[in-house]
């Protein structure tokens, strides 16, 4: 249980004891989902792509009209203080911001903005001996970007993912493949998806789901390794005919997918190449 950990959390400009980092039950964001967050990994005492994550935090704030009361440099320094005060080497870092309990209104106008950054020890999201992930197909769809802003990490956007993964786990799967409002392949619940066919890596165009920082890193790795990589609209039938499938994200890193419903896949050589190179980069 995360609330039972010991340590220090940066909260509104001060380091507070872990168990004293709390919010009021009438906080506006708890009721309406109007918050933002980031998920970051610390490897050997260094946050991987911290500038990109910090920039996206501010982008997400702008997207929902939230004025963060700190500068980019102040929040970068706050992260470093969290790492130092908790003596972290390999960890997960979670910055987030929310509106306070200044009135029961769907409007966030005149609401205070609060920011916290927590960090705790982290190794693997999934069992490192797992052969790969088993996905079902979610009945919930990713909406169009003009219905739900997908380019930022906004709290309210994630309820669909929670509903989808809960349903998947209740049926014995590890996660869900999510289609979009057009019936095209989108992503897994909180990770971007790639597949391999005849030596080529293919990934859906991120026009209604988050273009993740790990996704961007995988595209960079593919270029570095001279592996052809294509972003395109993908129908489910094309994905099911893949030679290899993998998903990626900050928390899960690179994970092979061994099945989607009744369609099965091998953990192949290109997935291994991408995974190995990613581990080299993050640990360098």
The CATH superfamily of the largest domain turns out to be D-amino Acid Aminotransferase, subunit A, domain 2
Helix/sheet category: alpha+beta
- Low-pLDDT regions: none
Distance separating the two termini = 31 Å
Number of strands: 16
Question: From the alpha-carbon coordinates, what is the Rg to the nearest angstrom?
Answer: 19 Å
CATH architectural label of the largest domain? Alpha-Beta Barrel
CATH C-level class of the largest domain is Alpha Beta
Largest sheet, in brief, is:
9 strands, mixed
- CATH fold field value of the largest domain: D-amino Acid Aminotransferase, Chain A, domain 2
Mean pLDDT: 97
Walkthrough of the structure:
With 284 residues, the chain is α+β, with helices and mostly antiparallel strands. It contains seven helices and 16 strands. The protein has helices at 28-32, 50-63, 72-85, 159-170, 213-224, 236-240, 269-282; strands spanning 8-11, 14-17, 36-37, 40-43, 46-47, 91-99, 113-121, 133-137, 175-179, 185-188, 192-197, 200-204, 229-232, 244-249, 253-260, 263-264. Strands 8, 9, 10, 11, 12, 13, 14, 15 and 16 form a nine-stranded mixed beta sheet that branches. The protein is globular, with a radius of gyration of 19 Å. 35% of the residues are buried. The mean pLDDT is 97.
Topology overview:
Blueprint (H helix, E strand, L loop, with lengths): L7 E4 L2 E4 L10 H5 L3 E2 L2 E4 L2 E2 L2 H14 L8 H14 L5 E9 L13 E9 L11 E5 L21 H12 L4 E5 L5 E4 L3 E6 L2 E5 L8 H12 L4 E4 L3 H5 L3 E6 L3 E8 L2 E2 L4 H14 L2
């Amino acid at each position: 249980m995360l609330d039972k950990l010991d340590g220090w959390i940066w909260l509104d400009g001060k380091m507070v004891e872990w168990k004293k980092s709390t919010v009021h039950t009438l906080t506006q964001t708890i009721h309406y989902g109007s918050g933002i967050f980031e998920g970051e990994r610390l490897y050997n005492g260094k946050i991987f792509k911290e500038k990109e994550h910090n920039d996206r935090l501010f982008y997400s704030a702008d997207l929902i009209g939230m004025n963060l009361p700190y500068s980019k440099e102040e929040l970068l320094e706050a992260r470093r203080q969290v790492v130092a005060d908790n003596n972290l080497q390999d960890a997960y870092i979670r910055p987030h911001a929310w509106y306070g309990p200044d009135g029961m209104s769907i409007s966030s106008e005149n609401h205070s903005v609060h920011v916290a950054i927590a960090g705790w020890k982290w190794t693997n999201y999934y069992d490192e001996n797992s052969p790969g992930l088993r996905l079902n197909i979610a009945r919930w769809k990713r909406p169009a970007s003009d219905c739900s802003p997908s380019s930022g990490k906004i709290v309210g956007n994630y309820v669909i993912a929670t509903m989808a993964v809960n349903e998947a786990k209740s049926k014995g799967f590890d996660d869900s493949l999510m289609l979009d409002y057009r019936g095209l392949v989108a992503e897994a619940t909180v990770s971007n998806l790639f597949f391999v066919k005849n030596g080529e890596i293919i990934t859906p165009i991120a026009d209604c789901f988050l273009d993740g920082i790990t996704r961007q890193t995988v595209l960079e790795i593919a270029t570095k390794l001279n592996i052809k990589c294509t972003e395109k609209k993908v129908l489910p039938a094309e994905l099911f005919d893949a030679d290899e499938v993998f998903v990626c994200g900050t928390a899960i890193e690179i994970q092979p997918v061994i099945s989607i419903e009744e369609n099965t896949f091998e953990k192949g050589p290109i997935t291994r190449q991408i995974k190995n190179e990613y581990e080299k980069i993050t640990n360098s």
